Amino acid sequence: MIDKRDSLIPEDARTKLDEWRNSGKTVVFTNGCFDLIHPGHIDILRRAKALGGVLVVGLNSDSSVRRLKGAQRPLIPEHLRKMSLEELRSVDLVIVFDDDTPHRLIAYVKPDILVKGSDYAVGDVVGADIVESLGGKVVILDLLPGFSTSELMKRLSDNHQ
Hints:
This protein has 7 helices and 5 strands. It is an alpha/beta fold. Mean pLDDT is 89; it is low at 1-5. It has a 5-stranded parallel beta sheet, sandwiched between helices. It has a single domain (11-159), classed as Rossmann fold (3-Layer(aba) Sandwich). The N and C termini lie far apart (53 Å). The chain is globular.
């Protein structure tokens, strides 16, 4: 059960997570900035959802994205990125986090499966230690070639020069 005194996770998210756990659902977790939702995101979220019962997405806050990606990012504010993710049928819950990594969030969610794209190795996945220590697993999914927000931004920039 998630500590209800911790403000890292909103009350409604804690309630959903408790309900899913109590009903024996497999919780899958992934995270990212999801600055411009593109086919690569859709593909990995769909395949992550297929691994379990519910998909929880950790979404970097605007300030977290700026620290990680630079002053020009995010392109889309967090409340709109969150709304967009929530509209995807593969996503069951979106939790915004302000840390540079989702480590604390993963420690609270305690997912059965942690998913990242193939731009990561299992040993480099933040939270892998937590998930594996709880008997869960880390799954690396192949990325859809040619789709990343950074690549798309570069293509747009190159086309306007």
